[in-house]
């Protein structure tokens, strides 16, 4: 898929999205001279110092969320709500790993996010990719067994 989502700001949900978004904007600038603003949220509102729930640039325009994984999609949905409250538009979600887990319906968690939030979801790597890598490396067989057990219990591999 060749899709370049509109992006004025990159958002990292607390807590795991915070180091991802900060590393991402630094890498984009250092390696590609691509300057993007970022924002992340706190779980608790801070009443001193840099007060409030959001840190970084104001949420405006088109926003791309970056996070590690989606389990049930709660963090992404909470982030989308924050973005909407600031009159910004969710443009896409980028995940480090799509675990290809079952959602709450007959769809995967990622498919549910796409449908509910009407945005593109991209993954750097999927569980299928990881399984393929493990199966091609004989010294990784114990991890492959663990992955297959995980798929049997939680998986939604299409």
Which secondary structure elements does this structure contain, and how are they paired or packed?
Elements: E1 9-12, H1 17-32, E2 37-46, E3 52-56, E4 62-69, H2 74-85, E5 89-98, H3 109-117, E6 120-126, H4 127-135, H5 141-154
Parallel strand pairs: 1-2, 1-4, 4-5, 5-6
Antiparallel strand pairs: 2-3
Helix pairs in contact: 4-5
By oligomeric state, this entry counts as single chain
- CATH architecture descriptor text: 3-Layer(aba) Sandwich
Radius of gyration, taken over Cα atoms and rounded to an integer in Å: 17 Å
> What structural category do the secondary elements indicate?
alpha/beta
Note the gap between the termini: 17 Å
- Discrete helix count: 5
Q: How many domains comprise the coordinates?
A: 1
Roughly what percent helix?
Answer: 25-40%
Low-confidence stretches: none
Provide the residue-averaged pLDDT. Answer: 89
Give the helices and strands as they follow along the chain: EHEEEHEHEHH
How many strands, which pairing sense, and closed or not: the largest β-sheet?
A: 6 strands, mixed
Main features:
5 helices, PRTase-like, 6 strands, alpha/beta, six-stranded mixed sheet, 158 residues, Rossmann fold, Or_phspho_trans_dom, magnesium ion binding, globular, pyrimidine biosynthesis
Overview of this protein structure:
Helices cover 38% and strands 28% of the residues. It has helices at 17-32, 74-85, 109-117, 127-135, 141-154, and strands at 9-12, 37-46, 52-56, 62-69, 89-98, 120-126. The chain has one domain: Rossmann fold (3-Layer(aba) Sandwich), CATH 3.40.50.2020. The model has no long low-confidence stretch (mean pLDDT 89). The protein has a six-stranded mixed β-sheet with strand order 3-2-1-4-5-6, sandwiched between helices. It is α/β, with parallel strands linked by helices and 158 residues long. Helix 2 links the parallel strand 4 and strand 5.
């Amino acid at each position: 898929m060749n899709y370049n989502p509109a992006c004025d700001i990159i958002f990292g949900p607390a807590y795991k999205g915070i180091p991802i978004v900060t590393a991402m904007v630094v890498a984009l600038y250092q390696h590609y001279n691509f300057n993007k603003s970022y924002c992340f949220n706190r779980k608790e509102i801070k009443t001193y110092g840099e007060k409030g729930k959001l840190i970084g640039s104001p949420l405006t325009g088109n926003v791309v969320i970056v996070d590690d994984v989606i389990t049930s999609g709660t963090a992404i949905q909470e982030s989308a709500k924050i973005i909407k409250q600031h009159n910004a538009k969710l443009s896409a979600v980028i995940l480090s790993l799509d675990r290809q887990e079952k959602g709450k319906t007959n769809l995967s968690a990622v498919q549910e996010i796409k449908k509910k939030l009407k945005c593109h979801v991209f993954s750097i790597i999927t569980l299928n990719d990881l399984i393929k890598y493990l199966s091609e490396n004989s010294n990784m067989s114990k991890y492959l067994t663990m992955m297959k057990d995980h798929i049997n219990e939680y998986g939604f591999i299409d």
